[in-house]
Amino acid sequence: MRHLLSAGDLDRDEATLILDTAGELAQVGDRSVKKLPTLRGRTVVNLFYEDSTRTRTSFELAAKRLSADVINFSAKGSSVSKGESLKDTALTLQAMGADGVVIRHGASGAPHRLANWVDGSVLNAGDGTHEHPTQALLDAFTMRERLGRLEGLRVAVVGDILHSRVARSNVLLLTTLGAHVTLVAPPTLLPVSVHTWPCEVSYDLDEVLPESDVVMMLRVQAERMHDSFFPSVREYSRNYGLDGERLSRMPEEAIVMHPGPMVRGMEISAEVADSPRCTVTEQVANGVSLRMAVLYLLLGGS
Amino acid sequence: MHARKPARDDNEISPPASVPEVPEGTRAVLDGNEINRALTRIAHEVLERTKGGQDVTLLGIPSRGVPLAERLARRIERVEDLDVPAGSLDITMYRDDLRLAPARALGRTEIPAGGLDDRVVVLVDDVLFSGRTVRAALDALGDLGRPRAVQLAVLVDRGHRELPIRADYVGKNLPTSLRESVTVQLEESDGLDAVLLGPSPAATLKEGTRPGSLQRSKDTEGDL
Fold first, then answer.
1. Is the domain of A266 the same as that of A293?
2. Given A2, A71, B19, B86, which is the most exposed site by the fewest CB atoms within 10 A?
3. Which among A13, A16, A36 is the top mutation candidate for probing chain B, defined by the most B β-carbons within 10 Å of its own β-carbon?
4. Tally of domains within chain A
């Protein structure tokens, strides 16, 4: 494994190794010295062309806990705003000796291009509406922690599938790990090619919920929408939002996940977001351990 | 099926009662009973040296060190009726040779409740070789707490140290050549107890005389 570009590139053994490694590294957060010397002298560049708080700080903290040097590079306030291309930026970072490049970019496929230009490892931290593999890995990790297994788990992914890189990565990864995924969305918010994905599709949330061990709510990504995809927020919320009443019809052990940021009152009610069955903050905490595992496995060896 | 091997005259230990089947060119230098006796002796020595073992915490280094630490804890309990905390300490992230091989899977680290501060930590490993594993373990300990003292117990000391490190408790001193490999098998992980001495895998021979070099086979990795 040299890069992490797509959750679909991971086979079952590799994915399990990442999850197991993350499980061990989770202890580091509880120690008096929350640092390991493993990546001492290595340089990790966070190259963020899109806004992000969670993912960037998570990668930064993960790299720092492994003693790597971290350079944060955001499009705002860099040469990118002066018109520099991705390739020239990449070659600049290359010349500075970056061992790993964590990239978030608005264009789907940007990390794949980058991987051809630099010698170091490229980690996809979200590219357009394509993929977000570390989010899928931390989601799988959280499910395994909470429910003890992934094999045979029934996972419903609900909301704006069309614009979601989280949905695609989760479908690919969870299928590899033996879970069954059902996508739930209005027809307008499903990609045209969804029938080729290894999952089921439903338009009816109430039908899917009683049979789900995990429900993952996705935000409606208004910033990527140039048309109207549903009549009104209120109608969307009534059909595809998760409230306390809907939650009560799920199996008792079932958990609610959300990759964040949440829009309370839209896809998830405040009551559900604050319930102990909602794993949003756990997902954030697990994200650091998971990204430490990925950085270690990509940059730690020869 | 147990094959009997001829005892060697120059071997200081008596021929084991039953020697498990071993690979070609390999001989057992300790059998199950001898390992048991060595561990019992080490348990007594630990109690003696630590004046009753009140503050002792045993930490096994994965993979073979962990079951050895648990066995030592049980023996100490039997001798002194004292419940000694035992855990494990994985040193992978502290190795000095990480960059010489692909990233390794991590072992378990389990620090017993109560932590390590002011305890007498006895590190337990199967084979003491170059001393680099112990060096890494000392670094790892420093990040986990501040023990009052750190001691080292090993089942086999095969020599060839590359660092100024020595063991406080040794099951058996086994002078070896760098062309040989020492493999410890334990009931818990391998189905039977034995210490095997055999020719080193070809890769090691090519590496010449650098036991610390990490392009070695998996079998000998733990010997560091």
1. no
2. A2
3. A36
4. 2
Q: Are B76 and B124 in contact (CB under 8 A)?
A: no
Report d(CA A59, CA A299) in Å as an integer.
14
Using a CB-CB cut-off of 8 Å, the residues of chain B touching A25 are 106
Q: Which of A4, A16, A34, A38 best probes binding to B when mutated, by most B CB atoms within 10 angstroms? A: A38
Write a three-state SS string for A74-91.
Answer: ECCCCHHHHCCCHHHHHH
pTM above 0.80, yes or no: yes
Q: Do A11 and A96 sit in the same domain of this protein?
A: yes
Q: pLDDT truncated to tens, each residue of chain A (302 aa)?
A: 899 999 999 999 999 999 999 999 999 988 888 999 999 999 999 999 998 888 999 999 999 999 999 999 887 777 777 788 999 988 888 898 899 999 999 999 999 999 999 999 999 999 999 999 999 999 999 999 999 999 999 999 999 999 999 999 999 999 999 999 999 999 999 999 999 999 999 999 999 999 999 999 999 998 888 778 999 999 999 999 999 999 999 999 999 999 989 999 999 999 999 999 999 999 999 999 999 999 999 999 88
B106 with A21: Cβ contact below 8 A: yes
* Number of residues assigned to chain B: 224
Q: By residue range, what is the domain housing residue A145?
A: 133-279
Among candidate residues B204, B118, B129, B112, the one with its CA nearest the CA of residue B174? B129
Show the domain range for B154: 31-175
Is the Cβ pair A24, B90 closer than 8 Å? yes
Q: Residue B158 maps to which CATH number?
A: 3.40.50.2020
- CATH code assigned at A264: 3.40.50.1370
Q: In what order do the strands lie in the sheet with A154-158?
A: A200-202, A180-184, A154-158, A214-217, A255-257
Q: A261 preceded by cis ω (within 30°)?
A: yes
Q: Looking at the domain assignment, is residue A2 inside a domain?
A: no
Contacting residues of A for B108, CB less than 8 Å apart: 24
